[in-house]
Amino acid sequence: MMLIPTYHFRDIERKPEYLQPEKCIPPPYPGPVGTMWFIRDGCGIACAIVTWFLVLYAEFVVLFVMLIPSRDYVYSIINGTMFNLLAFLALASHCRAMLTDPGAVPKGNATKEFIESLQLKPGQVVYKCPKCCSIKPDRAHHCSVCKRCIRKMDHHCPWVNNCVGENNQKYFVLFTMYIALISLHALIMVGFHFLHCFEEDWTKCSSFSPPTTVILLILLCFEGLLFLIFTSVMFGTQVHSICTDETGIERLKRKNQPREHTGNWQSVKEIFGGDFSLNWFNPFSRPCQPEIPGDKDLVRQVTSLSDTDNTETTEEPSEDTKDEDSVEVIDE
């Protein structure tokens, strides 16, 4: 059985009546490098605020319920420093994942003039997104929340209010890793604190009343256990996607079809920014900047319609528009 790369599986709509590049508005003049990226989505903004609130709640309980009232100063300093460092790295990774352009394709570049400038030859096609009027490079997918096509889009995560793509996947992986670590750390400290309070007088275990202390610790335990499981699973799936060079969307589209496993150590280094070093765990270091697809990279070579046998064809071109020697603009 032939092995086919997963990113060749595409849902293609062949609707000539909708392929109207003359209606596309040319893209605006690109902004300066480093311009902040932010998605104005109410649900995503609310989820991002909840994320920060939960981390700050954990900070409050760890510091003011468990560590500061403790008479073991060495224990408090070591655990307080470790927990605050991990929390800072988690929130920094969250900000970078949320405010970094995930790899958006230039919007509105599928104009008639631009398509004509590509000088397509017989057998060559370009894929056009009818939603954002962009010519899509290989492995790009449209996000209905960001309203843009994203290169190597894995999924849209409301918790970071952004897509996870080729430019910010490192930050998302670090965010899930650090959240899992502080969740595990908080659970361990809650366990030790309960054991200590059972042996000592509860009134000496915390500056709060015993009922309040128990409620705060139970809520933190529930939060830590929930997010430890959730972020550990997300971290594992992201690492697997990076190692196999297969995004979540590509994995869903592939279903049970076999594919070539093209992932290697090089793809891991590209995501995390070079050879293994401490910068891999630094949310302030950039990943390797991918090459921006040139005009030639937007053109695909299709030898026959059988190359798209694994896609859904909703409508074929009419006989008067179908020509063996014509080039195709495929509405995807």
Record the SSE blueprint.
Blueprint: H1 42-67, H2 73-99, H3 112-117, E1 124-129, E2 134-136, E3 140-143, E4 148-151, E5 155-157, E6 162-164, H4 169-199, H5 210-244, H6 248-254, H7 265-272, E7 299-301, E8 328-331
Parallel strand pairs: 1-8
Antiparallel strand pairs: 1-2, 1-7, 3-4, 5-6
Helix pairs in contact: 1-2, 1-4, 1-5, 2-4, 4-5
Structure overview:
The protein contains seven helices and eight strands, in the order αααββββββααααββ. By secondary structure, the protein is of the alpha+beta class. The strands form three sheets. Strands 1, 2, 7 and 8 form a four-stranded mixed beta sheet that branches. Strand 3 (140-143) and strand 4 (148-151) form a beta hairpin. The model is unreliable at 1-19, 29-33 and 303-327 (pLDDT under 50).
Query: Which band does the percent of strand residues land in?
Result: 5-15%
What's the β-strand tally?
Answer: 8
Radius of gyration: 25 Å
The biggest beta sheet reads: 4 strands, mixed
Q: What letter string, H or E per element, gives the SSE order?
A: HHHEEEEEEHHHHEE
Helix content: 40-55%
Task: Determine the mean pLDDT.
Answer: 79
Number of DSSP helical runs: 7
Structural class: alpha+beta
The stretches of 5 or more residues where confidence is low (pLDDT under 50) are 1-19, 29-33, 303-327
Distance between the amino and carboxyl termini: 27 Å
Q: Give the overall shape.
A: elongated
In a few lines, what is going on in this structure?
The chain is α+β, with helices and mostly antiparallel strands. Helix content is 42%, strand content 9%.
